[in-house]
Amino acid sequence: MVKRTPQGSPRSPRRTDGLSREVIVQAATELLDGGGEAALTLRALTVRLSTGYGAIYHHVADKGDVLAAATDDVITRVLARVVSDVDPREALRRLALGLFDAIDAHPWVGAELSREPWRPALLDFYESVGRLLDALAVPERVRVDAAGALVNYVLGVAGQNAANARRRAGGDTDRAAFLDDTAARWARLDPGKYPFVHAAATQLREHDDREQFLVGVDIFLAGIAALAQRATTSDGTRLPE
Fold it and tell me: What is the CATH number of the domain that holds 6?
């Protein structure tokens, strides 16, 4: 029999298994992936988890706490997938691509990181980048700048892609149509004033965001290799690459 409230509306059956912060974060992630930040409410969580507000408040403070925890969980899973015994350059590439793919799959992560750029899990990401740069013999005097450049590049490109996806989701234009329209406008520009942009119009239609992102990572890694090669000890001995 379906229980009813005093007003006569159906009451959702209560869950019989234990509720935890991890279970709440998983449910929140599903809501966020399905409908964005607007879909994540404590009411929606109580319905999805078949529980009451009190049980949820026992594990989380508010919606902001849930959103932050879900963001940290996504980044933590990126870090867990990187194998520690691979070449440091390849590990850096995997880290960068892992975070890009995670934000592409969960656009709300990019929005949350723009509000709170140094979430605890992102600090772990930054620490991992710093250790890998150390393993690549990047000089200490530029290591912080190099780590910041890579992290900012990843967050900037991934966050912009996520923002574009959210804007397209709210309208009638898909990615292909958006690129076609932009490329058409670029092609109409004066080639004398904008020779590069005019020539890039064709590639704009065909480019892949992920592949373009990896080109940027590879350019960064090439610069890192050059820094390491130029680094020398005080007696002129070249540091290991």
Answer: 1.10.10.60
Cβ contact 125:75 at 8 Å: yes
Closest to 136 (Cα-Cα) out of 90, 202, 81? 90
- H-run or E-run covering 163: helix 140-169
pLDDT above 80 for 240: no
Q: Does an H or E element contain 98, and which? A: helix 88-105
Which residues have CB under 8 Å from 89's CB, separation 6+? 136, 221, 224, 225
Domain, as residue range, for 18: 1-60
Q: Establish if 196 belongs to a structural domain.
A: no
**How many domains is the chain built from?**
1
Which residues pair with residue 10 across a beta bridge?
4
The position carrying tokens 């397209």 is 168
Q: Which of 229, 106, 84, 220 is nearest to 161 (CA)?
A: 106
Residues 45 and 23 sit within 8 Å (Cβ to Cβ):
no
* Mean pLDDT to the nearest integer, 34-55: 95
For residue 208, what are its two tokens? 């892949």
What is the pLDDT confidence band of residue 6, given thresholds at 50, 70 and 90?
Answer: very low
Query: Rounded to whole angstroms, how far apart are CA atoms 147 and 152?
Result: 8
Distance CA 14, CA 62 (A): 21
For the segment 59-82, what is each residue's pLDDT rounded down to a tens digit?
Answer: 999 999 999 999 999 999 999 988
Classify burial at 135, counting beta carbons within 10 Å of its beta carbon; exposed 0-12, middle 13-18, buried 19 or more.
middle
